[in-house]
Amino acid sequence: MAMKSSPIIAELRGMANPEAVTGMARFGINPQNTLGVSMPVLRSLAHRLGRDHALALELWRSDIHEARILACLIDVPDQVTPRQMEEWVATFDSWDVCDQCCGNLFDKTPFAYEKARSWSEREETFVKRAGFVLMAQLAVHDKLAGNEVFAAFLSIIARAVEDERNFVKKAVNWALRQIGKRNPALNRLAVAAATDIRKKDNSAARWIAADALRELRSEKVQALIRRRSKGETHVLP
């Protein structure tokens, strides 16, 4: 292992907590190569280290669960290449690494929309999940994007709702809900999409639709998007 990452790996190993690993496994987190270091600790360590692309690459190559999450937190989005994204997504083996990488790094790259579309069509569980997690994160974080890109995502979501895999269907649901919370126009489109999805003769599709409709039609979300609409600049006809 390269010298730059060695003391950080040693520090992470020194904080290992086997009991925490057992608890994480109960929430579906892969316990293999996992130390049990909490997210607040990892975020504090990332803040101390600062942005460092070369170090992030080293940490990822360690294969240690927490080191990979730390890599997502310190990498530099402008230095991430499509090849790196493909290499990393191919090694996702746990939903939390997938989600942290998509929400802290990949969604801030110039390639996020392209990868969201292409990965959502892939069959590998965590690659496909990454596509829909990216959609959800972009809906939250990209304040300048127009409605048309998210309306197009709704069509992709509608094609994926019959995937029964838990890690996939929850990400599909997440993307649908986040798009529908973006503004009133997208809320109407997402509710219409969910209403159509609910008609499918498939348990995953019915769950995705029912859960999304419950949230998107709630008074809490309706009040939220009314507030957001005051500063809305991108509205589909």
Q: Can you give the mean pLDDT?
A: 94
Q: What is the annotated CATH architecture of the largest domain?
A: Alpha Horseshoe
Helix run count? 14
Low confidence ranges: 233-237
Q: What is the helix content?
A: 55-70%
CATH class of the largest domain: Mainly Alpha
Query: What fold name goes in the CATH topology slot of the largest domain?
Result: Serine Threonine Protein Phosphatase 5, Tetratricopeptide repeat
User: How many individual domains?
Assistant: 2
From the helix content, strand content and strand pairing, which structural class follows?
mainly alpha
Shape: globular
- This entry's quaternary arrangement is single chain
What gap, in angstroms, lies between the N and C termini?
A: 55 Å
Structure description:
The protein has 237 residues and is mostly helical. It has two domains: 75 residues, no CATH class; 139 residues, Serine Threonine Protein Phosphatase 5, Tetratricopeptide repeat. It is 67% helix and 0% strand. The chain is built from 14 helices and no strands. α7 packs parallel to α9. It starts with 5 loop residues before the first helix and ends in an 8-residue tail after the last helix. The C terminus is likely disordered.
